[in-house]
Design goal:
The chain has 450 residues and is of the alpha/beta class. The chain is built from 19 helices and 10 strands. The longest helix is centred in the middle third of the chain and has 23 residues, at 212-234.
């Protein structure tokens, strides 16, 4: 296990009717003028927005409203929110809805006190120093933004999807009423749960050893989802199952399950580029990408994949052939994501513009964020793999690497140590050999029913 410092100061107000306590908690944390930032009209039609406003009125807290947050939240609305917040002298942000509204609220919160462009924080050109306090009233278990220090925004100039991770945007409090998730359509429920599972797997697939404690936490969250998702797809108003999924979504991404261990995040970064270009639901994209990623990285640590198969998917361990067990676990994961009964449509577009996909500062982003991929590869192997990709047949390797913006150190034993390029290779390989053929089908149906 690695050294770590972990702080999760968010106050969680969990249970029935807790949205009615919003005003009291804003008052407790010093807010005097709030911006309520939300997405579509669902929070209006359900009466949730009115209940939150009534709570603020009761506490004597002033407020203004900004709706319109959409999946894969956009920079344009963030700029609008920053301007409104300054004009209205807002000193407290509430993200009302799912991860998109919350991430957008966090972006507004860092942008208001900053003299420059809020995008500087997402483009890794600056680090937040002052941020408006952020709170959340959550309606969708998925992104885990109610407990995390992260926010992801798509900039409309170039459709670049980038993330910010900083402790200053971790919510000061989050209201979590499982009843607010009763009306979620099966599609949003399933996509959200796919995202939660991916948050766990990005941490679980680690090169760090002696992490039994967090391994077991990860496995417990995964098994909870496997048990409860079919329940809520059959009984959308099953409070107990909804409550367990809601809390699982928070635990999956406040980093309780990731402390002291190397984390990956390659699959998320690949999906960010796909959803930025094609505007697919994040969870649906992950449901396509993650099984391909797992197959590709299987031999990096067969025993870890076999452990996942046995502990989570109840496979029987084949001690003579652990790889067989590992592959069976991945197959069961795929079966969990695919079914004809309760189906969720994953992206059906033909992602055939490979050059556009790659020409997106993707590697620069990974270098800045600095995740260590779940696999390491020698320079010689990476060169050969790059040359196998058809898009490289009309470009020399050196020219392509100049396009990436870096050069290879010939003496480097592992290219990762200098360029962190294994992710770049993985994105090319997965997209050309796995994702693109998979998505070329007219319709791929994904489900979260075993």
């Amino acid at each position: 296990m690695q050294n770590f410092v972990f702080c999760s100061p968010t106050t969680f107000v969990f249970g029935k009717g807790t949205e009615n306590e919003t005003g009291a908690y804003v008052q407790k944390f010093g807010g005097t003028k709030v911006m309520i930032h939300y997405g579509s009209g669902s929070v209006v039609r359900s009466g949730l927005l009115d209940r939150v406003k009534a709570s603020l009125d009761e506490a004597g807290i002033g407020y203004c409203e900004l709706g319109g947050a959409q999946p894969n939240p956009r920079s344009g609305l963030v700029y609008e929110g920053i301007e409104m917040a300054r004009r209205e002298k807002v000193d407290f942000m509430i993200g009302l809805g799912g991860g998109s509204a919350i991430d957008s609220a966090k972006a507004i919160a860092v942008g208001v006190p900053y003299d420059g462009d809020f995008w500087d924080f997402y483009d890794d050109k600056a680090e937040p120093e002052n941020t408006l306090p952020v709170a959340t009233v959550v309606t969708i278990p998925a992104a885990g933004s109610e407990g995390s220090n992260s926010s992801v925004i798509t900039h409309e100039d170039g459709m670049l999807k980038r993330g910010l991770g900083h402790e200053s945007i971790r919510p000061v409090f989050s209201i979590m009423n499982p009843e607010l998730t009763f009306t979620l359509p099966p599609y949003q429920t399933a996509c959200g749960c796919a995202d939660i599972m991916a948050h766990i797997l990005e941490r679980y697939l680690s090169n760090t050893t002696d992490v039994e404690m967090t391994d077991r936490l990860c496995e417990s969250v995964l098994k909870t989802l496997i048990k409860e998702v079919p329940v809520v797809l059959e009984e959308p108003e099953h409070y107990g199952a909804r409550a367990n999924i809601f809390w699982a979504g928070m635990i999956a991404h406040n980093n309780s399950c990731g402390v002291g261990r190397e984390q990956d995040w390659s699959s998320h970064q690949i999906e960010h580029e796909l959803s930025a270009l094609y505007d697919v639901a994040h969870g649906a994209g992950l449901a396509v990408i993650f099984p391909a990623f797992m197959k590709y990285t299987l031999k990096q640590d067969v025993q870890r994949y076999a452990q996942l198969a046995v502990r989570v998917w109840n496979c029987e361990m084949d001690f003579q052939n652990p790889e067989k067990t590992a592959r069976e676990g991945i197959t069961r994961f795929e079966l969990f994501l695919k079914s004809d009964k309760r189906r969720v449509c994953a992206p059906g577009e033909q992602f055939d513009d490979l050059l556009t996909f790659l020409d997106r500062e993707l590697v620069a982003q990974i270098i800045m964020l600095g995740p260590r991929p779940f696999f390491d590869a020698s320079q010689h192997y990476l060169k050969n793999l790059l040359l196998q990709c058809p898009m490289f047949l009309h470009n020399s390797l050196d020219k392509q690497l100049v396009f990436v913006g870096h050069t290879i150190n010939p003496s480097a034993e592992r290219m990762y140590d200098f360029l962190r390029l294994p992710f770049f290779v993985l994105s090319i390989y997965l997209f050309y050999h796995k994702i693109q053929p998979f998505l070329a089908m007219p319709l791929h149906c994904v489900d979260l029913c075993p």
